[in-house]
Design a protein that fits this description.
By secondary structure, this protein is α/β, with parallel strands linked by helices. It has helices at about 5-10, 15-30, 120-130, 150-160, 185-195, 215-230, 265-280, 295-305, 310-315, 320-340; strands at about 45-50, 50-55, 55-60, 80-85, 100, 105-110, 135-140, 165-170, 205-210, 235, 260, 285-290, 305-310. The chain binds flavin mononucleotide. Flavin mononucleotide (FMN) binds near residues 84, 99, 210, 290 and 310. Flavin mononucleotide (FMN) binds next to strand 4, strand 6, strand 11 and helix 9.
Length: about 350
Protein backbone atom coordinates (compact mmCIF):
# COMPACT_ATOMS: atom_id res chain seq x y z
CA UNK A 1 0.00 0.00 0.00
CA UNK A 2 1.15 3.56 -0.75
CA UNK A 3 2.58 5.01 2.44
CA UNK A 4 2.96 8.81 2.32
CA UNK A 5 4.95 8.80 5.58
CA UNK A 6 7.85 7.15 3.75
CA UNK A 7 8.17 10.37 1.78
CA UNK A 8 7.34 12.74 4.64
CA UNK A 9 9.72 11.18 7.16
CA UNK A 10 13.07 12.26 5.68
CA UNK A 11 11.77 15.84 5.56
CA UNK A 12 10.24 15.74 9.03
CA UNK A 13 13.36 14.18 10.51
CA UNK A 14 15.47 17.05 9.22
CA UNK A 15 13.50 19.30 11.56
CA UNK A 16 13.74 19.58 15.32
CA UNK A 17 11.48 16.78 16.68
CA UNK A 18 9.05 19.25 18.22
CA UNK A 19 8.77 21.28 15.01
CA UNK A 20 8.17 18.03 13.12
CA UNK A 21 5.49 17.12 15.65
CA UNK A 22 3.80 20.50 15.27
CA UNK A 23 3.73 20.03 11.48
CA UNK A 24 2.21 16.57 11.95
CA UNK A 25 -0.48 17.97 14.24
CA UNK A 26 -1.28 20.72 11.71
CA UNK A 27 -1.54 18.18 8.89
CA UNK A 28 -3.90 16.08 11.01
CA UNK A 29 -5.94 19.17 11.97
CA UNK A 30 -6.18 20.18 8.32
CA UNK A 31 -7.33 16.63 7.54
CA UNK A 32 -4.67 16.15 4.86
CA UNK A 33 -3.17 12.97 6.35
CA UNK A 34 -4.60 10.07 4.31
CA UNK A 35 -6.60 7.66 6.50
CA UNK A 36 -5.43 4.12 7.19
CA UNK A 37 -7.57 1.28 5.77
CA UNK A 38 -10.93 0.97 7.56
CA UNK A 39 -12.34 -2.09 9.24
CA UNK A 40 -10.61 -4.14 11.91
CA UNK A 41 -10.45 -7.92 12.10
CA UNK A 42 -13.23 -8.95 14.55
CA UNK A 43 -10.66 -10.90 16.60
CA UNK A 44 -9.18 -7.54 17.67
CA UNK A 45 -12.43 -6.34 19.29
CA UNK A 46 -12.23 -5.65 22.98
CA UNK A 47 -13.69 -3.46 25.70
CA UNK A 48 -12.03 -0.86 27.88
CA UNK A 49 -13.91 0.30 30.97
CA UNK A 50 -17.23 -0.60 29.35
CA UNK A 51 -16.45 1.05 26.04
CA UNK A 52 -16.32 -1.26 23.00
CA UNK A 53 -13.15 -0.84 20.95
CA UNK A 54 -12.65 -2.21 17.44
CA UNK A 55 -9.01 -2.87 18.32
CA UNK A 56 -6.79 -2.70 21.42
CA UNK A 57 -4.14 -0.31 20.00
CA UNK A 58 -4.17 3.11 21.66
CA UNK A 59 -2.27 6.33 21.12
CA UNK A 60 -0.17 6.94 24.23
CA UNK A 61 -0.18 10.19 26.20
CA UNK A 62 2.06 13.00 25.00
CA UNK A 63 1.17 12.95 21.29
CA UNK A 64 -2.05 14.99 21.59
CA UNK A 65 -1.35 16.98 24.73
CA UNK A 66 -3.95 19.66 23.99
CA UNK A 67 -6.73 17.63 22.38
CA UNK A 68 -6.07 19.06 18.94
CA UNK A 69 -6.36 15.87 16.88
CA UNK A 70 -7.85 13.07 18.99
CA UNK A 71 -10.97 12.87 16.81
CA UNK A 72 -8.75 12.19 13.76
CA UNK A 73 -6.97 9.18 15.28
CA UNK A 74 -9.76 6.65 14.68
CA UNK A 75 -9.24 7.17 10.93
CA UNK A 76 -5.51 6.60 11.57
CA UNK A 77 -6.38 3.14 12.90
CA UNK A 78 -6.36 3.54 16.70
CA UNK A 79 -8.98 1.93 18.93
CA UNK A 80 -8.50 4.58 21.62
CA UNK A 81 -6.54 7.73 22.36
CA UNK A 82 -5.11 9.13 25.57
CA UNK A 83 -5.20 12.93 25.43
CA UNK A 84 -2.78 14.98 27.55
CA UNK A 85 -0.86 15.24 29.85
CA UNK A 86 -2.89 18.19 30.92
CA UNK A 87 -2.16 20.31 34.00
CA UNK A 88 -4.64 22.69 35.67
CA UNK A 89 -2.84 25.82 34.46
CA UNK A 90 -1.05 26.30 31.15
CA UNK A 91 2.71 25.88 31.44
CA UNK A 92 5.73 26.13 29.14
CA UNK A 93 7.58 23.00 30.22
CA UNK A 94 11.38 22.75 30.17
CA UNK A 95 13.61 24.81 27.86
CA UNK A 96 14.06 23.54 24.30
CA UNK A 97 15.63 21.44 22.86
CA UNK A 98 13.93 18.81 25.01
CA UNK A 99 13.05 16.00 22.58
CA UNK A 100 15.78 13.96 20.87
CA UNK A 101 15.63 11.23 18.24
CA UNK A 102 17.86 8.19 18.63
CA UNK A 103 17.23 6.64 15.19
CA UNK A 104 19.87 3.89 15.48
CA UNK A 105 18.17 2.74 18.67
CA UNK A 106 14.56 3.19 17.53
CA UNK A 107 14.15 5.46 20.54
CA UNK A 108 13.31 8.96 21.75
CA UNK A 109 14.52 10.85 24.81
CA UNK A 110 12.20 13.58 26.03
CA UNK A 111 12.32 15.95 28.96
CA UNK A 112 9.36 18.09 27.93
CA UNK A 113 8.05 18.66 31.46
CA UNK A 114 4.38 18.83 30.40
CA UNK A 115 4.15 21.90 28.18
CA UNK A 116 0.43 22.30 27.60
CA UNK A 117 -2.31 24.89 27.19
CA UNK A 118 -3.97 24.03 30.48
CA UNK A 119 -7.27 22.52 31.55
CA UNK A 120 -9.59 25.32 30.40
CA UNK A 121 -8.27 25.24 26.82
CA UNK A 122 -8.53 21.45 26.66
CA UNK A 123 -12.05 21.46 28.08
CA UNK A 124 -13.17 24.08 25.55
CA UNK A 125 -11.89 21.84 22.71
CA UNK A 126 -13.56 18.74 24.16
CA UNK A 127 -16.84 20.62 24.42
CA UNK A 128 -16.60 21.95 20.90
CA UNK A 129 -15.63 18.64 19.26
CA UNK A 130 -17.69 16.18 21.27
CA UNK A 131 -16.96 12.47 21.61
CA UNK A 132 -15.60 10.45 18.69
CA UNK A 133 -16.47 6.74 18.31
CA UNK A 134 -13.07 5.56 19.62
CA UNK A 135 -12.23 5.24 23.32
CA UNK A 136 -10.95 8.34 25.09
CA UNK A 137 -8.63 8.60 28.06
CA UNK A 138 -7.28 11.85 29.51
CA UNK A 139 -3.85 11.94 31.13
CA UNK A 140 -3.69 14.22 34.17
CA UNK A 141 -0.60 15.81 35.73
CA UNK A 142 0.19 18.37 38.40
CA UNK A 143 1.60 21.78 37.51
CA UNK A 144 5.39 21.91 37.95
CA UNK A 145 5.10 24.71 40.54
CA UNK A 146 2.00 23.40 42.30
CA UNK A 147 2.19 23.54 46.10
CA UNK A 148 -0.44 20.81 46.42
CA UNK A 149 -0.03 18.35 43.51
CA UNK A 150 -2.78 16.08 44.89
CA UNK A 151 -5.22 18.99 44.68
CA UNK A 152 -4.24 19.48 41.02
CA UNK A 153 -5.31 15.89 40.35
CA UNK A 154 -8.59 16.40 42.22
CA UNK A 155 -9.38 19.54 40.20
CA UNK A 156 -8.51 17.82 36.92
CA UNK A 157 -10.43 14.62 37.67
CA UNK A 158 -13.53 16.61 38.65
CA UNK A 159 -13.32 18.68 35.49
CA UNK A 160 -12.58 15.94 32.97
CA UNK A 161 -14.70 13.03 34.28
CA UNK A 162 -17.57 13.78 31.84
CA UNK A 163 -15.33 13.69 28.78
CA UNK A 164 -13.49 10.38 28.98
CA UNK A 165 -13.82 6.62 29.40
CA UNK A 166 -10.95 6.77 31.87
CA UNK A 167 -8.60 9.26 33.51
CA UNK A 168 -4.92 8.49 33.95
CA UNK A 169 -3.03 9.76 36.97
CA UNK A 170 0.46 10.35 35.66
CA UNK A 171 2.29 9.72 38.89
CA UNK A 172 5.48 8.73 37.10
CA UNK A 173 6.79 11.59 34.98
CA UNK A 174 10.60 11.55 35.10
CA UNK A 175 10.89 15.18 33.96
CA UNK A 176 9.29 17.26 36.71
CA UNK A 177 9.83 17.27 40.46
CA UNK A 178 6.10 16.88 41.09
CA UNK A 179 6.03 13.75 38.92
CA UNK A 180 7.95 11.83 41.56
CA UNK A 181 6.04 12.86 44.69
CA UNK A 182 3.67 9.91 44.49
CA UNK A 183 6.43 7.34 44.50
CA UNK A 184 6.06 7.80 48.25
CA UNK A 185 3.29 5.31 49.17
CA UNK A 186 1.79 7.61 51.82
CA UNK A 187 1.49 10.48 49.29
CA UNK A 188 -0.09 8.11 46.78
CA UNK A 189 -2.51 6.83 49.44
CA UNK A 190 -3.47 10.41 50.32
CA UNK A 191 -4.00 11.29 46.65
CA UNK A 192 -6.27 8.28 46.09
CA UNK A 193 -8.25 9.04 49.26
CA UNK A 194 -8.83 12.60 48.08
CA UNK A 195 -9.97 11.36 44.69
CA UNK A 196 -12.31 8.83 46.31
CA UNK A 197 -13.91 11.66 48.31
CA UNK A 198 -14.89 13.67 45.20
CA UNK A 199 -18.69 14.10 45.05
CA UNK A 200 -18.94 13.16 41.34
CA UNK A 201 -21.65 15.06 39.46
CA UNK A 202 -21.56 12.35 36.78
CA UNK A 203 -20.73 8.64 37.17
CA UNK A 204 -17.34 8.21 38.81
CA UNK A 205 -14.72 7.85 36.08
CA UNK A 206 -12.43 4.84 35.77
CA UNK A 207 -9.08 5.83 37.28
CA UNK A 208 -5.82 4.47 35.95
CA UNK A 209 -2.39 4.99 37.52
CA UNK A 210 0.62 5.20 35.20
CA UNK A 211 3.80 3.77 36.69
CA UNK A 212 7.49 4.35 36.12
CA UNK A 213 9.73 1.40 35.27
CA UNK A 214 12.46 2.98 37.41
CA UNK A 215 11.56 1.33 40.71
CA UNK A 216 12.71 -1.88 42.29
CA UNK A 217 10.46 -4.86 42.98
CA UNK A 218 9.87 -3.99 46.64
CA UNK A 219 8.81 -0.40 45.81
CA UNK A 220 6.60 -1.67 43.00
CA UNK A 221 4.91 -4.13 45.33
CA UNK A 222 4.23 -1.35 47.86
CA UNK A 223 2.79 1.02 45.24
CA UNK A 224 0.61 -1.67 43.66
CA UNK A 225 -0.61 -2.58 47.15
CA UNK A 226 -1.69 1.03 47.74
CA UNK A 227 -3.42 1.13 44.34
CA UNK A 228 -5.30 -2.12 45.02
CA UNK A 229 -6.35 -0.95 48.50
CA UNK A 230 -7.82 2.16 46.89
CA UNK A 231 -9.64 0.05 44.28
CA UNK A 232 -7.88 1.60 41.32
CA UNK A 233 -9.54 0.61 38.02
CA UNK A 234 -6.42 0.15 35.94
CA UNK A 235 -2.65 0.51 35.73
CA UNK A 236 -0.53 1.61 32.78
CA UNK A 237 2.88 -0.02 32.53
CA UNK A 238 4.90 1.96 31.77
CA UNK A 239 6.06 5.51 31.40
CA UNK A 240 9.50 6.34 29.94
CA UNK A 241 12.69 5.33 31.75
CA UNK A 242 15.57 7.36 33.08
CA UNK A 243 17.78 4.30 32.67
CA UNK A 244 20.21 4.12 29.76
CA UNK A 245 20.82 0.57 28.54
CA UNK A 246 24.45 0.05 27.52
CA UNK A 247 23.23 -1.03 24.09
CA UNK A 248 22.34 2.55 23.08
CA UNK A 249 24.49 3.82 20.22
CA UNK A 250 22.83 7.04 19.03
CA UNK A 251 24.52 10.41 19.47
CA UNK A 252 21.85 11.77 21.82
CA UNK A 253 21.88 8.77 24.19
CA UNK A 254 23.37 10.82 27.03
CA UNK A 255 20.67 13.52 27.00
CA UNK A 256 18.70 13.79 30.22
CA UNK A 257 15.04 12.76 30.19
CA UNK A 258 12.80 9.76 29.69
CA UNK A 259 13.78 7.12 27.16
CA UNK A 260 11.02 5.49 25.08
CA UNK A 261 10.84 3.15 22.11
CA UNK A 262 12.69 -0.08 21.34
CA UNK A 263 15.07 -0.11 24.37
CA UNK A 264 12.04 0.25 26.67
CA UNK A 265 10.29 -2.83 25.32
CA UNK A 266 11.97 -5.50 27.45
CA UNK A 267 12.04 -3.69 30.81
CA UNK A 268 8.46 -2.42 30.48
CA UNK A 269 7.20 -5.85 29.40
CA UNK A 270 8.97 -7.58 32.31
CA UNK A 271 7.44 -5.02 34.66
CA UNK A 272 4.01 -5.59 33.13
CA UNK A 273 4.29 -9.31 33.87
CA UNK A 274 5.26 -8.51 37.49
CA UNK A 275 2.31 -6.16 37.87
CA UNK A 276 -0.08 -8.75 36.40
CA UNK A 277 1.21 -11.30 38.90
CA UNK A 278 0.64 -8.81 41.74
CA UNK A 279 -2.87 -7.66 40.76
CA UNK A 280 -4.42 -10.96 39.67
CA UNK A 281 -6.38 -11.65 36.48
CA UNK A 282 -9.18 -9.08 36.51
CA UNK A 283 -7.63 -5.60 36.83
CA UNK A 284 -7.29 -3.71 33.55
CA UNK A 285 -3.66 -3.25 32.51
CA UNK A 286 -2.58 -0.94 29.70
CA UNK A 287 0.72 -2.07 28.21
CA UNK A 288 3.03 0.60 26.77
CA UNK A 289 6.71 0.75 25.94
CA UNK A 290 8.50 0.04 22.69
CA UNK A 291 5.74 -1.65 20.70
CA UNK A 292 6.65 -1.59 17.00
CA UNK A 293 5.29 -4.90 15.66
CA UNK A 294 2.39 -7.30 16.03
CA UNK A 295 4.72 -9.80 17.72
CA UNK A 296 5.59 -7.20 20.38
CA UNK A 297 1.92 -6.30 20.81
CA UNK A 298 1.16 -10.01 21.28
CA UNK A 299 4.01 -10.39 23.77
CA UNK A 300 2.65 -7.47 25.84
CA UNK A 301 -0.77 -9.12 25.86
CA UNK A 302 0.73 -12.44 26.95
CA UNK A 303 2.58 -10.56 29.70
CA UNK A 304 -0.78 -9.36 30.98
CA UNK A 305 -1.94 -6.29 29.04
CA UNK A 306 -5.63 -5.95 28.18
CA UNK A 307 -4.99 -3.09 25.77
CA UNK A 308 -1.86 -1.43 24.41
CA UNK A 309 -0.47 2.01 23.70
CA UNK A 310 2.32 3.34 21.55
CA UNK A 311 3.92 6.63 20.65
CA UNK A 312 7.62 6.38 19.68
CA UNK A 313 7.04 3.85 16.89
CA UNK A 314 4.87 6.45 15.13
CA UNK A 315 7.78 8.88 14.96
CA UNK A 316 9.73 6.35 12.91
CA UNK A 317 6.96 4.68 10.91
CA UNK A 318 3.89 6.93 10.91
CA UNK A 319 0.41 5.52 11.37
CA UNK A 320 0.98 2.72 8.81
CA UNK A 321 2.57 1.09 11.86
CA UNK A 322 -0.85 0.83 13.50
CA UNK A 323 -2.25 -1.00 10.48
CA UNK A 324 0.74 -3.36 10.36
CA UNK A 325 0.56 -4.12 14.08
CA UNK A 326 -3.16 -4.88 13.84
CA UNK A 327 -2.67 -7.17 10.85
CA UNK A 328 0.19 -9.08 12.50
CA UNK A 329 -1.55 -9.22 15.87
CA UNK A 330 -4.75 -10.61 14.33
CA UNK A 331 -2.76 -13.45 12.72
CA UNK A 332 -1.09 -14.29 16.04
CA UNK A 333 -4.38 -14.21 17.96
CA UNK A 334 -6.07 -16.39 15.34
CA UNK A 335 -3.17 -18.85 15.45
CA UNK A 336 -3.41 -18.98 19.23
CA UNK A 337 -7.19 -19.47 19.14
CA UNK A 338 -6.85 -22.39 16.70
CA UNK A 339 -4.22 -24.06 18.88
CA UNK A 340 -6.26 -23.59 22.05
CA UNK A 341 -9.26 -25.37 20.52
C1 LIG B 1 7.59 13.17 23.38
C2 LIG B 1 6.89 12.35 24.43
C3 LIG B 1 6.01 12.98 25.31
C4 LIG B 1 5.33 12.24 26.28
N1 LIG B 1 4.45 12.87 27.12
C5 LIG B 1 3.79 12.14 28.05
C6 LIG B 1 2.83 12.75 28.90
O1 LIG B 1 2.54 13.96 28.79
N2 LIG B 1 2.23 11.99 29.86
C7 LIG B 1 2.51 10.64 29.99
O2 LIG B 1 1.94 9.98 30.86
N3 LIG B 1 3.38 10.04 29.17
C8 LIG B 1 4.02 10.75 28.22
N4 LIG B 1 4.90 10.11 27.38
C9 LIG B 1 5.14 8.65 27.55
C10 LIG B 1 4.28 7.81 26.60
O3 LIG B 1 2.91 8.00 26.84
C11 LIG B 1 4.62 6.29 26.74
O4 LIG B 1 4.26 5.86 28.04
C12 LIG B 1 6.08 5.99 26.49
O5 LIG B 1 6.62 6.81 25.48
C13 LIG B 1 6.33 4.52 26.14
O6 LIG B 1 5.70 4.17 24.92
P1 LIG B 1 6.50 4.16 23.50
O7 LIG B 1 7.78 3.41 23.73
O8 LIG B 1 5.59 3.48 22.53
O9 LIG B 1 6.73 5.59 23.15
C14 LIG B 1 5.57 10.83 26.38
C15 LIG B 1 6.45 10.21 25.49
C16 LIG B 1 7.10 10.94 24.51
C17 LIG B 1 8.04 10.23 23.56
Amino acid sequence: MFDPYRFARPLLHRLDPEDAHELTLRALEANVVPPQPRGDDPILRTTLFGRELSNPIGLAAGFDKNGRVYERMGAQGFGFVEIGGVTPLAQDGNPRPRVFRLPEDGAIINRMGFPNEGAAALEARLQRKGRPSIGIGINLAANADSRDPADDFVQLATRFAPYADYLTLDVSCPNVANGQVFLDPSCLRDLLARLAAIPWAVAAPALVAKLTPDIDDAALERLVGVLLDARIDGITVSNTTRARPVTLTAAHAAEAGGLSGRPLFLPSTAMLARVRALVGPSLTLIGAGGIASGAEAFEKMRAGANVLQLYTGLIYEGTALVTRIKRELAVLLEHEAVHQN
